[in-house]
What we know:
The chain starts with a helix and ends with a helix. The strands form 2 sheets. The chain has a 6-stranded mixed beta sheet with strand order 8-1-2-11-10-9. It has a single domain (3-157), classed as CATH 2.40.50.180. The chain has helices at residues 3-9, 13-19, 75-78, 123-126, 154-157, and strands at residues 22-28, 31-36, 40-45, 59-65, 68-74, 91-96, 101-106, 108-114, 120-122, 134-138, 149-152. By secondary structure, the chain is an alpha+beta fold. β4 and β5 (68-74) form a beta hairpin. Helices cover 16% and strands 40% of the residues. Residues 1-11 and 125-129 have low confidence and may be disordered.
Amino acid sequence: MSEAKLAIHQTDASEIVRTAHEFLAFSLAGESYALPLPSIREILKAPPITEIPRAEYDILGIISVRGRITTVIDLRRRLHLEEGPLTKDTRILLVDRGDEVIGVLVDLVHQVYRLHPDEIELSSVMGSDVSDHFVGIGRPGGEGSETLLILLDPIALLRRN
């Protein structure tokens, strides 16, 4: 396991954000989110997804990636957002969870942002009662930036319920 991946699986969420300087930004329901880049294995165009009978609500099904079966979750459903249609921009992020790789369906992938520590506001600093999926807010370009990224914790996000 690479040093970056090892770091992801041995730290808490705030430490992940402090040590990851690059984040992959994507859209869900019109909002911008980001995951630490070391947790992303690959970005795929959405292939046909095979449904699984009686699967949990947020599990769309499975896909085959180079002969390996991969579970795909709908991130809109996982985060309790309004559902939307698949489009030509829809992508599946293959996210490393440690014990397996999970496919995460997102609306649109934007770009990789390199954030400095002063461009990240951790949820513990925000003083609100936020979900454990959310780590904080990223502001590429600093405090005056109009771009806001909701930073997600890949470990908590993909934890089995």
